[in-house]
Specification:
- The protein has six helices and no strands.
- It has one domain.
- The longest helix is centred in the last third of the chain and has 35 residues.
- The relative contact order is 0.11.
- About 80% of the residues lie in helices and about 0% in strands.
Length: about 170
Amino acid sequence: MNLLNLYFAPFGAGLVLVAVYFSELDRRTSVASFAVLAASLLVNFWFSRYTYRFPGWTDRLRVLQVWLSFLWSVLLFYLLFQFCAPTWLLVALPAVAAALNQGRWQTLLTGVVSGAAVLGVYYVRWSGEMTSPALWAQACVHAAFIPVLCMFVHALAQTALRLRDLAHGR
């Protein structure tokens, strides 16, 4: 998780800051976005600092961190996607974190739920306005990419573990 916080937290924060800065958001949306971003960064910092101090709870805390990150990502995507199209990538980040810490089926489930959340946000925010099949096709590609990416990252992580085990004679 520390690697994910090292790379994905700055990326997610940067994406949110770009979306807020370069968009003409109303004050309420800007404040809500900053509040969610600040809360997510603080909680992720706490998790990265203290997860390993509770050895019996480490696996549960990792799962909790993934799902809390998912909730914040979906909320930020809901608030910002009409102003900054790439914010759907925020929803992919927790699913990738699951790929490194969970089993194959849990990873797939997290990826599918994340992809469904992307479609759900598109449906809620575009209801009535969205009639173009091309835009729905794009939304479906975004949603399908997330579980594919998760399974790819999971396979890479498992390969790295197997190679490590072979190198150590396990």
